């Protein structure tokens, strides 16, 4: 009897405790203040919001965000910003998606790359910034970056940086083996053969397969693998003319063993960039900062040249990476959040961004004299921005990403990666990727057409 | 304990030897460990060599960690992995690790200590209470309890991660230390260990005596039984300390603010820094940080090792 | 009265295990689409999983892993435990601690260290290749990756299992040894007739936990994937499959179904292992 009594007491206490916790949680969870209700705000509202005691949470991994936040807080002392690095790329998107799905826990502002933006815009997680007057900012940014944030008639982010591709190369390695800087892809393949024959430890570039790289290369070749029609119709075609042009070149490199088997962004990759065993990098314009910090030993040896093209003299590039910042619908401080974007992605933020190794998306900065004439010591004093800004002007227009691009990228190594691993035909890999991507789209309720 | 004068079973025909007659008055069975004084065995060179190979296998990566903690970022890339490079930068690396980003490593260390003390401490306490309860009391549903707990261990952690995340986020617990601590409070292996140990080393007679004196069950537990359970209890503590110190997966999902990261998640984020556009590669700090993360646990082991033997021995009798 | 002691544990257990499992089961009965939202589908996810080649690929892989790695690891652990127990080892404390030490290392750090050693260009394997002019198999290639992961796992857990066996050996009553001594039994006879049978329970428990651990293999392949993306697919193990379905594809419902199937499978296999162990006793 004594036992039962005590048990009942313990049990009731436990039950009461759990109810209390549940109740408290419910209380704190609900209760939306009136200010979060209306979408959109005028310039005065935004200015007022920035002059009120507020705390903003910003999720982002770009290192330039730190100095930008400091400057923002200095200018608007009543607004306190919590800058959080919750992961890079997919890790960050996973957290963001989880928070969106859970209905709480999302930040006010989030960094989102251009290739992931359609996904978040479509799932209605982001505020359409047109309601805050973002449309007027269109001419401040390059065409390709604005095109990446202007989706389905709405503006879902403000661009921060851009990544027009160029060819970074080791001048010393080229000189040592008498290789001239390639301007076409055919010349590039030849350079690769010459280099590897002369030094079996050196490779023209490293590639074990990367979704962003593949899509950018197809982009440069004029391919359009992903087309959107409205918000529910999608076409996936990874075997069009542009794709074939790329695989035509890249298959040669793969089959002839001209690609270093080191995975990008690993410590071995940084080693290869330092010691010259990786001779070129076809990558976005934001790379200099990474080279400077990760391959410090190779200072003075790297240079920049335009990306090789398929036809001699016909300049063409693509964007590789780069992104902007968006305001989440879950935010309770939308006006202040937009105010932050105005600063961070506007002229003041862009200056700080560029000064900290970022590559701008704003026309003003790209075309400023000081930017173009800057001599970069790491690159032996070369005025690298001249090449990079020209690259941003040569981006092939008309590209779009999928509304489920992060998923498609996550299965890249299961499909195209296998072609890399077995040194097979990249076309087969692309077809597998296409099929798997289409299947997912159909499962998710899209109407998917493939070729 | 009576003395055996003849062998328990003699299936061999071998020359008879007069058995040594020994009298001992200990109530507990004489353990293997106590027979040292009887015979002295010759040490085997072969065995030592073979174990030596195993020790090298076990220690090699740790040696790599130690050696590479002394290198700078650039010499990491230019020197042979298993030996020191020209410059000895261990002190610089340690300072760098502790001060990077306003000393976030120290914050993560403090977080990890919090999670370990509350999480492992709590887990040990809950497992000890429950194991004792299973061993010493009869109550309806007793058999079900252990079956259910063991069954739950079989469910993959990833199955639980998402529902737990969604649940916790509705309760407002995500991104708080509770989201890390609460899941770490359950140690099924700990429960099993204490259960077995309690069966062996807490004689029911003692409990009966205490009951007759009128002491309540909890009082008995805290004043008498706990002392007898100490080795098992300490062993569970050691294992839960290791588990919570090394906890990675669930905190990764639950926490989105680096201020609450444990060391494992923090180190991983440092490592990932190298993979971001414009990010600063800090491999030397990641390696030194990993080294510093292991040192306290090694220390805990060496300190608590005398409890290993007696604690686990009872757990393996069944 | 027993419930007063067991209660706190069970209370947290309900919150941390039972509630999520029930919720996972609930989730597994629905499907969520980016275009269309949630809808109830009953057992459709389970049928899909059972017909999913990627799922079975991952299951077969962990079974292969289990069948090869667990015996090797337990054998090494047993060898080490017997060696330590034999009394014929010098510096046995040192060996005991060294072999156990890897268990203290977090999986993140362990995989980092082994990832370096495995590196094809600058790792230890690469250096050995260069130095001796050999062309050893590449640990991170698709053909060797499972063995490489098995190695990391063995490295991490042999010491833990060794300690379980060692402690069990220490409890064997000395009378048995004296009797064997009188019979003139040699070392191997002692091992076969006394030591091994006496620690049968410990071997059983270690086996079950290792089996469960193998089915749940996740940490090492997940962390290694960044270094070897083409060798480790997103469905390399069932746990990884569920993880990527949830977090890359946001397909929580299907992932829940997969996890529940895996849980059931694991319980069945663990039960079978337990039964076959106790049948040997009888």
Explained architecture:
- The complex is a heterotrimer of chains A (451), B (318) and C (282).
- Chain A has 20 helices and 15 strands.
- Chain A is an alpha/beta fold.
- In chain A, α2 (43-50) crosses α13 and α19 packs antiparallel against α20.
- Mean pLDDT of chain A is 87; it is low at 1-38.
- Chain B is mostly helical.
- Chain B has a single domain (69-315), classed as MetI-like fold (Orthogonal Bundle).
- Chain B contains 12 helices and no strands.
- Chain B has helices at residues 45-68, 73-78, 90-136, 142-154, 157-170, 178-181, 188-201, 204-212, 217-245, 249-254, 263-273, 283-315.
- Chain C has 282 residues and is an all-alpha fold.
- Chain C has 2 domains: 1-42, no CATH class; 53-281, MetI-like fold, CATH 1.10.3720.10.
- Chain C is built from 13 helices and 2 strands; from the N terminus they run αββαααααααααααα.
- Chain C is globular, with a radius of gyration of 23 Å.
- The model of chain C has no long low-confidence stretch (mean pLDDT 85).
- The interface between B and C is large, with 117 and 109 residues.
Q: Which residues of chain B sit in consecutive blocks of at least 5 with pLDDT less than 50?
A: 1-38, 314-318
Helix content of chain B: 55-70%
**What's the mean pLDDT score of chain B?**
76
**What is the CATH architecture descriptor of the largest domain in chain A?**
3-Layer(aba) Sandwich
User: How many strands, which pairing sense, and closed or not: the largest β-sheet of chain B?
Assistant: none
Series of secondary-structure elements of chain B, N-terminal to C-terminal: HHHHHHHHHHHH
- Strand content range of chain B: under 5%
Q: Looking across the biggest beta sheet of chain A, what order are the strands in?
A: 2-1-3-14-6
Backbone structural class of chain B: mainly alpha
Name the biggest interface: B-C, 117 and 109 residues
The CATH topology name of chain B reads MetI-like fold
The CATH first-level class of the largest domain in chain A comes to: Alpha Beta
Mean pLDDT across all amino acids of chain A: 87
User: How many beta-strand elements of chain A?
Assistant: 15
Give a quick set of tags describing it.
heterotrimer, B: 318 residues, mainly alpha, 12 helices, 66% helix, disordered N terminus, C: mainly alpha, MetI-like fold, 13 helices, globular, MetI-like_sf (chain B), membrane (chain B)
